[in-house]
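Case study B.
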Amino acid sequence: MFLFIVFALIAIVAGLGVILSRKPVYSALFLLLNFATLAAMYIMLQAQFLAAVQIIVYAGAIVVLFLFVVMLIGGGELNAVDRETSRQGDKANIASQRSSIQLGWPRLTALVLAVLLLAGVGYGVITGQLHQPTGTAAAFGQGSVEAVAATLYTDYLLPFEMTSVLLLVGMVGAVVLARNE
Amino acid sequence: MVPISYYLILSAILFTVGVVGVLIRRNVLIIFMSVEMMLNAVNLTFAALALHFLSLNGQIFVLMAMVVAAAEVAVGLAIVMTVVRHKDTTNIEDVNLLKG
Amino acid sequence: MLDYAWLMLLFPALGTLIIAFFGRRLGKGVISWLAPGTVLLSFAVAVSQFATLLGLPAEERHHEVVLWQWMTAGSFSVDLALLIDQLSVTMALVVTGVGFLIHVYSVGYMHDDPRYSRFFAYMNFFILMMLTLVLANNYLLLYVGWEGVGLASYLLIGFWFEKPSAADAGKKAFIVNRVGDFGLALAIMFIWSTVGSLRFADVFANADVLVAAGVIGTVTMLMLLAATGKSAQLPLYVWLPDAMEGPTPVSALIHAATMVTAGVYMTARSAALFDLAPTSAMWVAGIGAATALYAATIALAQTDLKRILAYSTISQLGYMFLAVGVGAYASGIFHLATHAFFKALLFLAAGSVMHALHGELNINKMGNLRAKLPTTYWTYLIGAAALAGIPLLSGFFSKDEILWYAWQKSPVLWAVGLVTAGLTAIYAFRSVFVPFWGQPRDQKLFHHAHESPPAMTVPLIVLAVGAVLAGYIGIPHLSLIEGWLEPVFHAGGAAAEGAKAAYPAAWVEWVLLAVSALVALAGAYFAYTAYVVKTSIPKQVRDSLGWFARLVENKYYVDELYDKVIVNPLRDLANWFAGTVDKAGLDGAVNGIAGIAGWLGGQARRLQTGLVGLYALSILFGAVALVAWLVIR
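Model:
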C-alpha cells in the first residue's frame, strides 16, 4: 500500500511534468519517468511480462523516438523562447516564463522523482513486494511469460498476426511520410 | 493488498492529466506525449482489472494497445516531421488545413 | 414460287444497308445502278408472284409465308410472316413498279446533290417499309411498316434540312401522322384483347367476336383515324401539302406509290371489319367525299404547281375513301393503282419543269413551256387528262367506277363526287394551260428553260403509257381487276352478295358514265376558255365569289386554325411548363433543396476551425457526456 502511494505520486507528478514543461525534451524525459513508474505498477499487478514490454517498447523505443524527433526539429530556436506563450504577446507572461526557465524546476522535480522511484523500487525488492506473487494471484499464475504466450498464441492468434500487419503498415507509412522529396 | 479501486483512480488521474495536456498545450510533440500518457493510463486499467477478474485477456489487450501505440507513434512522428519541414513550426494552431 | 416472296423485302433491305454503310465509298455511279436495281429486282419478284397467283384457281390465291416467329409472350404471339394474295400482290406491283421508275428518275434529278447516297438509302428504306406494310400477314407487322413509312417520309421530306421550311415540314408530317398512328395502335390493342390474335385471317374469321363484344365500331373508327392521318384526309391532311418541301421524287413516291396509299390499303384490307360496321363505313365514305370536294376547291386557287398536285392527291385519296366507304374496295384499289401512275407522272413532270426552271414552281411565272419542254409537256398533258377523267384514259375508268358504286349507296355522295370530278378537270387543265400554253410571262426563266436528261424523261414516258393503259384492266362489265380482287374482300360474305343482287339496271350505269364523261370534258373546256382564250374569266369569277374566294385561296385558314386551336395553346402550355413549372417549380425545388443543404453546410463549416485543440475538446465533451449518461442512467 505504501509502495503504491509512492509510485502513484511519482506517476502523477511526472505526468504533470510532461504537460507543464516548456521544453519538449523535458516533457519526453518526464514521460520516460511516468512509463517507468507504470512498469513498476505492472509488477505489483502480477504482470511481469507486461512490465518488461513496457520498459522495452515504451521507454526503450517510443521515448527514444520522441527524443530523436525533438533533436531533429527541436533545435534551440523553436523552444528556447517558448513560442506558444510569446504569441499571446503578453509581456508579463514572457517575464514569468523567463524566471521559470531560470529557476529550472523541471530538473529539480525530475531529480526528486527519480530518486523517489529508485528508492521505492529498492524498498519493494527488499521487502519482497515486487517479486513475490501474493495471495490469490499466486494461484492464478499471473503474468508469467508462459501464461501470456499460451493465451496469445491460441485464443488471440489472429489478432496477433493482424498486429504484425499493422506494424508493417505503420512502418511503410512512416517511411513514405518522412521521405524527403 | 492494494484495492482495485485505487488503481482505477490513479488511472483516471493520469488520463485526465493527459487530456489536460492535449487541451492546453500547443506544441504538437507535447500533445503527442499526452496522448501516449492517456494510452498508458488505460493500459493500467486493463492490467488492474486483469488481476481483479483473474483473466489474462486484459494483459493481452495491453499488449495490443502497445503495438498500436508503437505504430501510431511511428506514423504520427513522421507526420510531425513532414509538417515541420513544410511549415517550419510545431505549433498546432499554425496547422489548420482542415479549416472549413 | 410463292414461298420466295420474302425476296421482295430482301432486295430493298440490302440496298438500304449497303448504301447506308458503304454509300460514300461506292460512289455515285454504283449507287445509281444499285438503288433502282434493288427495286427492279423486287418488282421482278412481285411479277413472278403475280404470275404464280394467276396460274392458281381463285380460291387458292391466298398464301402465307411464315419466316419466323417474331415474339411470344404468354398467349400473345406474332409471326414475321407475309401474306400473298391478290390484294397484296397488286399493291406490291404498284409500289415496286412505280417506285422503280421514280428511282430511275431520281438518279437524274438528284445528280448534283451532295447527300446522294443518303437519299437513295432513304428511298430504298421507304420502299422496304411500304412493302412490309402491304405484305404483312398480321396487324402488328403492318404497324411496323406503317411507322416505317412515317419515319421514311419524315427523313425524306426534311431531306434538305438546311431549309427551315423543309425541317418544319418533316416535323409536321411526323407529328400529324403520330395522331393517326395512335389510333391504329389502339385499334390493334382492341383487336388483340377481343380476338386474341393479330393475324388477318384469324381476325377476319372471328370478326363477329368483335361485333359481339361491341367494339367493332370503336376499332373501325380508330382505323379510320389512322387512315386519315396516313392518307391525308380531313382533318389530318395538313402535312401533305407541306411535304412539297422534300425533293420532287420524294413527293412522287409519297403521293403515288407509298405512304398515302397505306390508309386506303389498310381500310381495304380490313374490309371484313368495315362490312360489319356500317356506321364507320359511312363515316369513311363521308370523310372521303368531303375531302375530295374540299381539296379540289383548294387546288383551284393554288399557284404553286406542286401544291396543286398535292391538293389533287388529297382529293383523289378522298375518292378512294369514298370507294372503300361504300364497299367498293376493288374500285378503291383500282383507283389507287391508276392514280399511282398518273400522279407519279404528274409529279415527275412537275419536277422536270422545276429542273428546267431552276426551282421555280409558280405557274403564273411560266407560260408556253410546251415549246421548250415537249416531252414533259406531252407526258404532263396525258397525266392531267387521266387525272381529270377524260374518257378512255385510266382515271376515267377508275373514277367512274367509284361514282357508280357511290350512286348505289347514296345519290348525295355521287353528286359530291361528280362536282369534284368537274373541279378536278378544271384545275388539272389549269395546271396544263397556264404553264405550258399562252405567252411566256417571265422571259428570263423561259429563255433558260431546257429539257431534262433521259434518266428523267424515260420514266415519264413509261409512266405516261401506264397512265393511258392502266385503266383498261377495269373497263366496266369486263373489269378484270374487280374479279381479281373481289375474293379478298368478300370471302364468302353473303351480305355483299345480297347487295349485288339489288344493283340498278345496267342502263343507269351507262347514263352515269356519260354524265361523268361530259362533266370532265366540260371542265376541260372551261379551263381552256378561262386560261387560254379569255384570261379575264378567273378574275371575274374570283370577284363574284368575294369572301369565299379569299377563304379558298387561303386554304380555308385550316393551318391558321390548327395553329390557333392546337399548336399555339400546346406551345403556350409547353412554355408555361418550361418557364413556370419547370424553372420556378421543379428547378426551384431542386435548387432550393440544394440551397438549404449548401446553407447548412456553410453553417456547419464554421465548426471546422482547423484547430485540433477544439476538436479534442469536443471529443472530451462527448466523452464526459457519455460517462455522465452512464452514471445518471
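Residues 75-90, 99-103 of chain A have pLDDT under 50 and may be disordered. The remaining cases will be described in the next quarterly update.
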